[in-house]
Specification:
The complex is a heterodimer.
Chain A (H helix, E strand, L loop, with lengths): L10 E6 L5 H8 L13 E2 L8 E5 L2 E2 L3 H10 L5 E5 L1 H5 L9 E3 L9 E3 L6 H22 L1
Chain B lengths: L2 H30 L9 H11 L9 H20 L4 H20 L4 H32 L4 H6 L4 H4 L1 H14 L28 H24 L4 H21 L5 H25 L3
Classes of the chains: A alpha/beta, B mainly alpha.
């Protein structure tokens, strides 16, 4: 196989679970001139069929279990999931709420956990870079 | 060099040209937004990656149709430079676009299907113009081929300034630039997800991207036809026109399809028709 190009062109699908929108704002901050993740070829696609990385903010609730699983299934291989923020990692302060299932790993396999409330743009970018490494491992395994 | 060699040269060089142009486009767009932007070779990295990714075959006709899309787009340019009749090129060009519409319309995704319908609308708006434009160029130069137009002593842009203006208008549609990017877009989060390409993954999406590179190169060749007395001047004109397209792309919001259709017909009829009528009245 030729050199992998995934690390030069990671396309991201951002899904907001039961987030308070704090992490979502930080995710979008990554696209602004201050952080400009497009420098690294990152595209925020909004389409699961074009995406390599599923970036989820917020915890899983009863109503979005199917949606997250559906988005995950629609993504072509290789693919990775990055859970951004305390809620996506474990359910966060909402973990004990009656409608909350917990972190994203309750419904789809998570490869990278990015802690923080809200997660800082620097740590989100760091998480995506770790996600690219996981993507590379998956590609080698399937090749 | 014989015409066949020029045709083959187009098949090889056009994707490199189109890919680099897309790279420059993304950097210039980013700078307009106060960002640094991706590396120049980013479009090649993207397409290379798409070939390494799984291609979900939604149905058995999408891939052959998309191969037809790339193939006819490459053939349109190769035939143009290879010395085929220019009017014929307009039909091959339209056939390539039709392949993409059929591919997007054949899948179950409502986003893709709506994108296909909108693409038909923009074809309806733009294709008559290309036939008119090439016919007008052939008429004023009394030539029927690419080389013939280049060899003609008639300066096309000076004879057909209205047609050139209308071409710049229609090129916005063909380059998929805002406000006319109603069927699909390079930018995410439009109301149709990605429109035409919503259901295309992996190499299927790569074919669409490569066809777009060929299309950009063919549009560049059309601009050169207008500046037939000097090819470097034609390339410079294309660079300026493309810069304007990027500026318009970054400063306008997407139009509704009704506006796209009406404004394109109005502009092409007014400028192309007016230009041809003026030449007729002047007795050329």
């Amino acid at each position: 196989m030729p050199m992998s190009l995934f690390k030069r062109s990671p396309w991201i699908l951002h899904y907001d679970g039961s987030s308070c929108n704090g992490c979502d704002i930080e995710v979008l901050a990554c696209l602004t001139p201050l952080y400009d993740v497009e420098r690294f070829g990152v595209v925020n696609t909004g389409n699961p069929k074009h995406a390599d990385i599923l970036l989820v903010t917020g915890s899983v609730n009863e109503r979005n279990i199917e949606i997250i699983q559906n988005l995950y299934r629609q993504m072509p291989d290789p693919k990775v999931v990055v859970a951004v923020g305390a809620c996506a990692c474990s359910g966060g302060i909402f973990a004990r709420a009656y409608n909350i299932q917990g972190g994203i790993d309750q419904v789809v396999p998570v490869d990278v956990y990015v802690p923080g409330c809200a997660a800082r743009p620097e740590s989100i970018i760091d998480g995506v870079v770790s996600g690219i490494a996981a993507l590379e491992q998956k590609r080698k395994r399937s090749a | 060099m014989n015409p066949l060699a020029y045709g083959l040269l187009f098949v090889v060089v056009a994707p490199i040209f189109g890919g680099l142009l897309a790279g420059v486009d993304r950097i210039v767009s980013a700078r307009m937004q106060g960002r640094i932007g991706p590396p120049l070779l980013q479009p090649f990295y993207d397409v290379g990656k798409l070939f390494q990714k799984e291609a979900r075959q939604v149905n058995p006709v999408v891939e052959p149709l998309l191969l037809g899309h790339v193939g006819f787009m490459a053939a349109a340019g190769a035939l143009a430079l290879g010395g085929t009749d220019l009017i014929f090129i307009a039909f091959v060009f339209a056939l390539a676009a039709l392949c993409l519409v059929l591919a997007a319309g054949s899948v179950n995704s409502p986003y893709s299907f709506a994108g296909a319908e909108r693409e038909l609308v923009v074809l309806l708006a733009s294709e008559p113009f290309f036939i008119l434009m090439l016919a007008a160029i052939c008429k004023v130069t009394s030539a029927s081929t690419f080389a013939g137009v280049l060899a003609s002593p008639v300066m096309v842009a000076l004879e057909l300034p209205g047609v050139l203006l209308a071409f710049l208008f229609v090129a916005t549609i063909k380059l998929r630039k805002s406000p006319f990017d109603i069927s699909t877009s390079h930018h995410p989060h439009q109301e149709l997800v990605n429109g035409l390409t919503s259901d295309m993954s992996g190499r299927l999406l790569a074919y669409v991207e490569m066809a777009h590179w060929y299309e950009s190169a063919l549009l560049c060749a059309f601009v050169v036809l207008f500046f037939n007395w000097s090819v470097p001047l034609g390339l410079l004109a294309f660079a300026i026109a493309y810069g304007l397209e990027v500026l318009v792309d970054n400063s306008t919001s997407r139009a509704k399809w009704q506006l796209v259709l009406r404004s394109t017909w109005a502009v092409t009829l007014l400028f192309t028709g007016g230009n041809v009528l003026a030449l007729f009245l002047l007795g050329r």
